TrEMBL record:
PANTHER family: METHYLTRANSF_11 DOMAIN-CONTAINING PROTEIN, METHYLTRANSFERASE TYPE 11 DOMAIN-CONTAINING PROTEIN. InterPro entries: Diverse_substrate_MTase, Methyltransf_11, SAM-dependent_MTases_sf. The keyword Mitochondrion does not apply. This is CRG1 methyltransferase. Belongs to the methyltransferase superfamily. Residues 46-138 form the Methyltransferase type domain. Keywords: Methyltransferase, Transferase. One of its GO terms (biological process) is methylation. GO terms for molecular function: S-adenosylmethionine-dependent methyltransferase activity. It comes from the Eukaryota.
Length: 269
């Protein structure tokens, strides 16, 4: 069954506020593949493990009907409470038990969520609901991240990574799928027509507050916070202070370039 790490209302609210939508290059990569396979225009797209809907909104621009699903009621409530397009709806359900008929889904996606699923059961379910000729796009951003700001990018990235490394000590063992660049997830996809792209780099517009908020939204940080609330809070406060000092600015609203590397598994049934 799906590993549930994003259940609390407080965590869901932080997630909704600070998690970024799929980057431009990732979106172009997915859309180009769907066009190549003639999977768009299409009737129904399903976004599995949608969280608070960041990736689902992107799909709404390209499909007649989009359904976001997640096992977390708190996440789905955040998604429903966020203004969106009228062709998007949300459902609470496990990734391994999708409430769709056999061969009824044109495109199935999952953005930075599949490593939490029971991979075998999810792939069997994807195979069941996707139409012949339909496609899947399963992506994640990796822990390969950097910051750019003026001539202090290297120092700024060092400050960020020192904090991030501390947080990652509290990672769930399912991070192994991400560290393996979704190789196991690619191998488990039961389509013969498939490929894996591991070098998709995207610049995400952020602020200092947004970068710190992103780290706060991670499941690893939430685990850290449960174990040692004082140390976890202090780490983020100190990191924000160091970032501002490194940049020579005082406002946490100062824009920075946040660079992430995505991995994407694409397949056509």
């Amino acid at each position: 069954m799906t590993t549930q790490m994003f259940e609390g209302k407080g965590h869901a609210a932080v997630y909704q506020k600070y998690r970024f939508a799929p980057g431009i290059v990732l979106k172009q990569t997915i859309l180009s593949y769907l066009q190549e396979k003639k999977a768009i225009p299409a009737e129904l797209a399903v976004d599995v493990g949608c969280g608070s809907g960041q990736g689902t909104h992107f799909l709404g621009e390209h499909f007649k009907k989009v359904v976001g699903t997640d096992i977390s009621e708190a996440q789905i409530q955040e998604a429903k409470d966020t203004p969106g397009m009228p062709n998007i709806s949300y459902l609470v359900c496990p990734a391994e038990e999708l409430p769709f008929q056999d061969a009824s889904v044109d495109v199935l996606t999952s953005f930075t969520a599949a490593h939490w699923f029971d991979i075998g059961k999810f792939m069997r379910e994807a195979d069941r609901v996707v139409k012949p000729g339909g496609c899947v796009a399963i992506s994640t951003y990796t822990v390969d991240m950097s910051l750019r700001y003026g001539d202090c990018s290297e120092k700024l990235t060092k400050v960020f990574r020192e904090c991030w490394d501390q947080i990652l000590k509290y990672s769930h063992d399912r991070l192994k799928y991400v560290l393996d660049n979704y190789q196991e997830i690619f191998d488990a996809l039961p389509f013969s027509d498939k490929k894996r792209i591991t070098d998709i780099y995207d610049q995400i517009p952020m602020t200092v507050e947004g970068v710190v908020g992103y780290m706060e939204s991670s499941s690893s940080y939430q685990t850290f916070k449960k174990n040692d609330p004082k140390a976890a809070t202090s780490l983020l406060q100190e990191t924000e202070k160091r970032m501002l000092e490194t940049m020579g600015v005082s406002s946490r609203e100062t824009p920075v370039e946040f660079w992430v590397r995505h991995v994407c598994v694409l397949g056509c049934k």
